[in-house]
Specification:
Helix content: under 10%
Radius of gyration: 14 Å
Number of helices: 0
Shape: globular
Structural class: mainly beta
Largest sheet: 7 strands, mixed
Distance between the termini: 40 Å
Length: 117
């Protein structure tokens, strides 16, 4: 059974940093990519960043230059380094992975990130 568990969320002041981690287990298929989405209160879930199996990273414009996505060497972990955090980054952050079929798309339960002074 595929399981994704996020960690590293919390309360941080504007301008601060957090590093989110996503641990993945139970994967029996080839992972094509891993990524992060977020959902702020009253907002739709938003794609934030993704990284392919070839380690090509992409980001939503609002986090470019501030966030960095990376994968662990064992490919069972994905990270999101968040710097210069802003209040508008406050959201529940969700990790997901996908393969080469619509059936291979899995999500974690999310971790709360709150940016507030």
């Amino acid at each position: 059974q595929v399981e994704l568990v996020e960690s590293g969320g919390g309360l941080v002041q504007p301008g601060g940093s957090l590093r989110l981690s996503c641990s993945v287990s139970g994967v029996t298929f080839s992972i094509n990519g891993m990524g992060w989405h977020r959902q702020a209160p009253g907002k739709q879930r938003e794609w934030v960043a993704s990284i392919t199996s070839g380690r090509t990273a992409s980001y939503v414009n609002s986090v470019k230059g501030r966030f960095t996505i990376s994968r662990g060497s064992a490919k069972n972990t994905v990270y999101l380094e968040m710097n210069n955090l802003k209040s508008e980054d406050t959201a529940v952050y969700y990790c997901n992975i996908w393969g080469d079929s619509p059936a291979y798309d899995f999500w974690g339960p999310g971790t709360q990130v709150t940016v507030s002074s």
